[in-house]
Amino acid sequence: xxxxxxxxxxxxxxxxxxxxxxxxxxxxxxxxxxxxxxxxxxxxxxxxxxxxxxxxxxxxxxxxxxxxxxxxxxxxxxxxxxxxxxxxxxxxxxxxxxxxxxxxxxxxxxxxxxxxxxxxxxxxxxxxxxxxxxxxxxxxxxxxxxxxxxxxxxxxxxxxxxxxxxxxxxxxxxxxxxxxxxxxxxxxxxxxxxxxxxxxxxxxxxxxxxxxxxxxxxxxxxxxx
Amino acid sequence: xxxxxxxxxxxxxxxxxxxxxxxxxxxxxxxxxxxxxxxxxxxxxxxxxxxxxxxxxxxxxxxxxxxxxxxxxxxxxxxxxxxxxxxxxxxxxxxxxxxxxxxxxxxxxxxxxxxxxxxxxxxxxxxxxxxxxxxxxxxxxxxxxxxxxxxxxxxxxxxxxxxxxxxxxxxxxxxxxxxxxxxxxxxxxxxxxxxxxxxxxxxxxxxxxxxxxxxxxxxxxxxxx
DNA sequence: TGATTGTCTTTCGTCTACAGTCCACGGCGC
DNA sequence: GCGCCGTGGACTGTAGACGAAAGACAATCA
Lengths: 225, 225
Description:
homodimer, 225 residues, mainly alpha, Arc Repressor Mutant, subunit A, 4% strand, DNA-binding, TF_FadR/GntR_C (chains A, B)
């Protein structure tokens, strides 16, 4: 038997770095979302390739994916430019985000089981703890995980994928403005959990819609300095 | 002078076909949506390249774009396979489609001007004419243009882009089943136009939701043979 | 006879090279 | 001084080539 001669649990599994293009994609997305690459900047393939230690080809493929997802604009025969967000576009993204999140809340209310609800409450508790500790980064992270969990409970993969993309871009647009709604946001999360527990689809939809609209208003209030 | 040696009117060279990858993308998408390439089929890069008369590179880029949009599955170190739709996924797509279309109807009701409404009525008239003439292809085309016009009147580019992708895939999933709801569909369109004219957002939302739900049911009824 | 292993083919992933295109800069004429 | 044209450089678009991983098949050994 083979298993006798092998250390059973500790097979290190041969970490495969995966396709280069994916790593380049994530690296570039990280650079864009962190504003290391500013909007409007010209991205030169050979430059990025040299900087990342790879050839131009994976860089090209990553850029094209970023293009289809709206992170960069690919002007023909000229190259890639980091997308420049406009007020109008940001507003449209927020509209769509509200829509998708509200539907997710409705589906979550329809489908969630007790385990899922328990998970939501656990995330909520952690989020409140982070807020109490003035851990802004932690609170933001828990907020994202909370919404992701709602999405997961909704059980609609298509919806989840669209929402993930929209969410990421919304966050990018509004990261320059500091955001911390603190306690109020988590109070609304608690109310949402209650609605989900009661399987009240309409109330869950309404609460999530109001919740994201609150966030939208607070974003707008801060972005118009 | 150079011009004397040239055939004066026949300089065909001005038409720029645009990047090759885009043409390959559209060609492949056409082949997939028309079922010339069946779901599950293994797409070999060099084969496609040879068939289309280009190099592998544009084919690769087109395949990756098709991958991010959900038309093909790209298995690492193995290649591209035409995505195989499942019942569950189709249902999720229909849910999202209903959501996006209903929101578009709401926004159209809020924003549409008289010119837009006139355009809708014109499209509706043409659609009814096609139905009366038993022109199924024409009716389907007019239906698509009607919904696209609603989307345009909504004035939300982000929403429109998402809806376009979802719509295309929904149509792909359900093209094997013959679809013709005929007159009833256009009656509902008329009702929707009335709601938009009255600027009644709630009624427009409800009508569009019911409309796409009807379509969904008729799809389901036919697909479960 | 069955499983295992070695090899072999196919295909992808990546790199390098070349041609085409666009932009900027400088010279020239007006 | 101002505008237009030609030229140079830089970058992208495309093609072709090489190395590597995965699957298939046959030969070998228990």
